[in-house]
Amino acid sequence: MPDVLDATPYDALLLLSFGGPEGPEDVVPFLENVTRGRGIPKERLKEVGQHYFLFGGVSPINDQNRALLEALRKDFAEHGLDLPVYWGNRNWAPYLTDTLREMVVDGRRRILVLATSAYASYSGCRQYRENLADALAALQGEGLELPRVDKLRHYFNHPGFVEPMVDGVVASLAELPEDVREGAHLAFTTHSIPTASADTSGPVAGHGDGGAYVRQHLEVARLVAEAVRERTGVEHPWQLVYQSRSGAAHIPWLEPDICDHLEERHAAGVPAVVMAPIGFVSDHMEVLYDLDTEATARARELGLPVRRSATVGADPRFAAAVRDLVVERSAVERGQDATPCALGALGPSHQVCPVGCCPARADRPAAAGADSPYA
Ligand SMILES: CC1=C(CCC(=O)O)c2cc3nc(cc4[nH]c(cc5[nH]c(cc1n2)c(C)c5CCC(=O)O)c(CCC(=O)O)c4C)C(CCC(=O)O)=C3C
Ligand SMILES: [Fe+2]
Questions:
Q1: In a domain, 107, yes or no
Q2: CB distance 117 to ligand 1 below 6 Å
């Protein structure tokens, strides 16, 4: 018999993700869901639609979440953690509101949320919390008794998130031609966001100084690069760069873009680059198109050997990390001691997003944080 782990007071875990289209007819309605009220230029939308059509209108993200769901259920069962796991998305079926309704109908009263986004930022945290608030409002409108919803802390520096990425980079280096391997640089990539959003990310107003998005990514990049050096005995120079920029051209977003970075490295005489998408939890469309298709084609034109390393996806170590986070948060909620696990210098993230954390452009209600209008 495995030890029995205690998730009290929680009675369910909700895997909350982005969602993606599952066929050509889904692409346009999916993009409308994503960009409603977000001010994305029409041209950009057409372009992004083409990325999906290139892959038959199917994003890999939903299958990746199905695999993660399986990995979580298997890990929980093997470790005596009796906690049902549900799955809902912000932008495509199964929709968050439908999943939350199902959970309420099943009698779930205390729900813990795992978002497939490891870092602080409006897009990676508060926007998920706004969607939770919208879903709760919808259920309230249906006359349902609302459950209490909490969100797991940011896990960017949890070993179960970092270590699979180290393996990925080591494997990608090994795939490079031997004569360029030792001189290879590492390009850690993440989603570009508006600099205004990056500057205010994380707790602000006396609880930190903003800038958490970049700071957290730099820390993960450093941790991965150091572990790679320990494993390979080679110190590969690295830089944090950005991908998947969207929005209007006159609004500043985080730079440099991965394609410009590859050109710059090539011009500087760097013999090869490993692109490591540390900003993402799975190899979804931003990875498949922006790195494997676009950036890889640019590298080929330059004659620069590149490889792209894997994200954590459904790695059993990531599932174990989620179990660890669930057990930790449950203990905290019971008023017991917990020993939050985190690598590196930043320490474990806050358990509950404080008031004003990762502010939005517009004032909208957000659940599962200190400024939630829900209990
Ligand atoms: C920080 C961040 C993450 C990482 C955290 C997380 O994972 O949540 C992320 C993930 C994802 N982004 C995704 C897809 C899209 N993101 C878009 C647009 C935007 N993303 C933004 C940021 C982020 N995005 C921002 C600031 C915008 C501008 C519009 C706005 O301010 O809201 C658009 C609109 C078209 C475009 O402009 O690109 C699409 C289609 C998919 C699904 C991929 C698939 O289908 O496999 C995933 C996982
Ligand atoms: Fe995005």
A1: yes
A2: yes
Average of per-residue pLDDT values in the chain: 96
Predicted pLDDT at 207: 46
Compute the distance from residue 106 Cα to the ligand 2 centre, in Å: 32
Q: What is the pLDDT of residues 152-169, one digit of tens each?
A: 999 999 999 999 999 999
CATH number of 99's domain: 3.40.50.1400
Expressed as residue numbers, the domain containing 265 is: 159-308
pLDDT at 2: 52
pLDDT band at 40 (very low <50, low <70, confident <90, very high): confident
Task: Kindly state the tokens that stand for 273.
Answer: 């680059």
236 and 289 share one domain: yes
Q: How confident is the model at residue 190 (pLDDT cuts 50, 70, 90)?
A: very high
Instruction: Check pocket membership of 48 for ligand 1, CB cut-off 6 A.
Output: yes
Burial annotation 70-94 (CB, 10 A radius, 16+ → b, else e)? ebbbebbeebebebebbbbbbbbeb
Question: Which of the ligands is closest to the CA of residue 123?
Answer: 1
Count Cβ atoms within 10 A of the Cβ of residue 268 and give its class: 0-12 exposed, 13-18 middle, 19 or more buried. Answer: exposed
**Protein residue whose Cα sits closest to atom 17 of ligand 1:** 34
pLDDT of residue 1: 46
Task: Please name the residue that has the structure tokens 């517009």.
Answer: 362
- Please tell me the number of Cα atoms within 13 Å of 180 on its side-chain side: 19
pTM, rounded to two decimals: 0.97
DSSP string, 105-158: HTT--EEEEEES--S-SIIIIIHHHHHHHHHHHHHHHTTPPPPEEEEPPP-TT-
